[in-house]
Amino acid sequence: MPSKSSSSRKPAPDREAIRIRWERRNIGLFGGGLGAILIGFILLSQGSITVAPILLVVGYCVLIPLAFIL
Questions:
Q1: Tens digit of pLDDT per residue, the chain (70 long)?
Q2: What stretches of the chain adopt beta strand conformation (E)?
Q3: How far apart are CA 7 and CA 12, in angstroms?
Q4: What phi and psi, each to the nearest 5 degrees, are found at residue 54?
Q5: 29 burial type by CB count under 10 A (0-12 exposed, 13-18 middle, 19+ buried)
Q6: Which among 61, 59, 66 is positioned nearest to 26, based on CA atoms?
Q7: Domain coordinates of the chain in residue numbers?
Q8: Checking CA distances to 7, which of 18, 38, 59, 69 falls within 20 to 30 Å?
């Protein structure tokens, strides 16, 4: 009985690798997002129920995704 070897499989089509360009702008946005999240959690632990959620949403939903997209 002939054995199936891995060489008989067709190679996967070449896919273009997705690379994140870590330029100064991306690093700044990512750092700003982390800073906003950190300050948001600090304010949340001190009882701020208005500014803290705004900072957390801006950090998680705006700045961090922008750092990866741009």
A1: 655 555 567 666 666 777 777 899 999 999 999 999 999 999 999 999 999 999 999 999 999 999 999 8
A2: none
A3: 12
A4: -65, -45
A5: buried
A6: 66
A7: 22-48
A8: 18
Question: Tokens 């741009």 — which residue?
Answer: 70
Question: Model's pTM, two decimal places?
Answer: 0.72
Lookup: tokens for 68: 């990866």
Q: Would you state the torsion angle of the CA atoms of residues 64, 69, 15, 5, taken in this order, to the nearest 10 degrees?
A: 10
The values of phi and psi at residue 31, to 5°, are -65, -40
C-alpha distances (whole Å) from 13 to each of 6, 7, 16, 17 are 16, 15, 10, 12
Report d(CA 33, CA 61) in Å as an integer: 9
CA distance 36 to 50: 14
